[in-house]
Amino acid sequence: MKKIILVSFIFTFLISCEINSNFEKASIENLFKELKKNSEFESELSEKILVEFLYKVDISDLKNGKSIEKEFLFEDIKCNCKDKLSISYNKENQRFELNIYEEFFEEDLDWCPESSYLFSFKFENNKISDVKFLHLAG
Fold first, then answer.
1. Structural domain that includes position 75
2. Which residue from 55, 69, 93, 100 has the least number of CB within 10 angstroms?
3. pTM
């Protein structure tokens, strides 16, 4: 009987660890470095903003179909241009997809030119790996 209780306790503990898992700050910082290595990635996104966005994301929510999106202002100026980060999980290829949408402030224009970058990555053993650039629009 004690073995059954012990096995149940261990199983419950392992499940709760998986359910409450989040991206760690060091992994997010490494992700940012990988994003910046891509020559087509010309965004004003800062490491600080990426950490702020991903640090509280519940990985199990993403794996269960939830998508997270949040508005930011990447540039350090006051303007009406809005930037967004969103993340989701693609069950087909078992990869996380990070979308970076950015509107650039152009003083001479009446509108904000925009760009959107799509990256995917894996998350295994509490580490982000295999970062791939998928798409650029804008």
1. 23-137
2. 93
3. 0.81
Number of domains within the chain: 1
3-state secondary structure of 28: helix
In a domain, residue 52? The reply is yes
| Cα–Cα distance measured from residue 103 to residue 80, given in angstroms and rounded to the nearest whole number | 9
Smallest Cα–Cα separation from 62: which of 90, 35, 99, 84? 90
Q: What is the pLDDT of residues 108-133, one digit of tens each?
A: 766 778 999 999 999 998 899 999 99
Cα–Cα distances in Å, from 26 out to 8, 48, 117?
32, 12, 22
Task: Return phi, psi of residue 95, to 5°.
Answer: -135, 150
